[in-house]
TrEMBL record:
<dbReference type="InterPro" id="IPR016167">
    <property type="entry name" value="FAD-bd_PCMH_sub1"/>
</dbReference>
<keyword id="KW-0274">FAD</keyword>
<dbReference type="InterPro" id="IPR005107">
    <property type="entry name" value="CO_DH_flav_C"/>
</dbReference>
<protein>
    <submittedName>
        <fullName>FAD binding domain-containing protein</fullName>
    </submittedName>
</protein>
<dbReference type="InterPro" id="IPR016169">
    <property type="entry name" value="FAD-bd_PCMH_sub2"/>
</dbReference>
<dbReference type="Pfam" id="PF00941">
    <property type="entry name" value="FAD_binding_5"/>
</dbReference>
<dbReference type="InterPro" id="IPR051312">
    <property type="entry name" value="Diverse_Substr_Oxidored"/>
</dbReference>
<dbReference type="InterPro" id="IPR016166">
    <property type="entry name" value="FAD-bd_PCMH"/>
</dbReference>
<keyword id="KW-0560">Oxidoreductase</keyword>
<keyword id="KW-0285">Flavoprotein</keyword>
<feature type="domain" description="FAD-binding PCMH-type">
    <location>
        <begin position="1"/>
        <end position="174"/>
    </location>
</feature>
<dbReference type="InterPro" id="IPR036318">
    <property type="entry name" value="FAD-bd_PCMH-like_sf"/>
</dbReference>
<dbReference type="InterPro" id="IPR002346">
    <property type="entry name" value="Mopterin_DH_FAD-bd"/>
</dbReference>
<dbReference type="InterPro" id="IPR036683">
    <property type="entry name" value="CO_DH_flav_C_dom_sf"/>
</dbReference>
Length: 277
């Protein structure tokens, strides 16, 4: 199929882009790796596409004030290959799992957040780290906590007249450890289940994805020397609580519960060892 007819707008400023969005029936085009297939299958029929790829300031990638600032036009592949991403190890570990290299060469970090696919890696990583998403609208700029940003499957806290302009990931501090894992049928496929983990001292933050309509974040208190076997009762119970998908042809709910329990225990132990190394 081909996309339904639409108007194309390439604004010269963020304010102009917001004005076009405020007119209604418009969608933002950044990388297009999620939007273009939706248009091609006519699952979406916006009247106007607002191309933000060349807007001044949205290509910023910098570590500043204890945060990694990623502009809305920054490609995933650029972040993956940058020196700056070393400041946020969890982002560096997750990016190679985002689609395929060719898709990451066009797709943007903020675009993945805004698309809010339940099986996407970056929304879970952002929620796990306590990142902040910067949004601009007619009323000015506001900052949304990543944990509150995704409100449901393919749904976010961004209004139809608002534009995501960037995301801020806190840089890793001393004594922090991280873990990331997912299982998919093939590399680049949507995850059947996945986890992002951050450990500080004996406190662990875990974000699960691919098992609900949005990333699910839980806080755990660990023993001084946790083991996978010792954690399994805890992670199995957590998985049984958070997995609310009915399953599909690729895996039942029970399979995802077991998978999440195994991945969570393994990555928590890995992150704890790294934090205490």
């Amino acid at each position: 199929m081909k996309a339904a007819p639409f108007a194309y707008c390439r604004p010269d400023s963020v304010d102009e882009a917001v004005d076009v969005l405020a007119g209604g029936d418009a969608k933002v085009l950044a990388g297009g790796q999620s939007l273009v297939p939706v248009l091609a299958m006519r699952l979406g029929r916006p009247g106007t596409l607002v191309d933000i790829t060349r807007l001044p300031g949205l290509d910023s990638l910098v570590v500043q004030d204890g945060q990694l600032h990623v502009g809305a036009a920054v490609r995933q592949r650029r972040v993956e290959r940058s020196a700056e991403v070393a400041a946020v190890p969890l982002v560096a570990r997750a990016l190679p799992f985002v689609g395929h290299r060719e898709l990451r060469s066009r797709g943007t970090v903020c675009g993945s957040l805004a698309h809010a696919d339940p099986a996407a890696e970056l929304p879970a990583v952002a929620a796990c780290l306590g990142a902040s998403v910067v949004v601009r609208g007619p009323g000015g700029e506001r900052v949304v906590a990543a944990a509150d940003f995704v409100t449901g499957a393919m749904t976010t806290a961004v209004g139809p007249d608002e534009l995501v302009t960037g995301v801020r990931f806190p840089v890793a501090g001393a004594g922090e450890g991280f873990g990331f894992a997912e299982l998919a049928r093939r590399h680049g496929d949507f995850a059947l289940a996945g986890v992002a983990v951050r450990v500080r001292g004996e406190a662990a933050t875990l974000a699960a994805f691919g098992v609900s309509d949005r990333p699910v974040v839980r806080e755990l208190t660990l023993d001084p020397d946790p083991t996978e076997a010792g954690l399994r009762p805890v992670t199995d119970a957590l998985a049984a609580e958070v997995v609310d998908t009915d399953g599909d042809a690729h895996g039942s709910r029970g399979y995802r519960v077991r998978l999440l329990g195994v991945l969570a225990a393994r990555e928590i132990v890995r992150a704890h060892r790294e934090a205490h190394r």
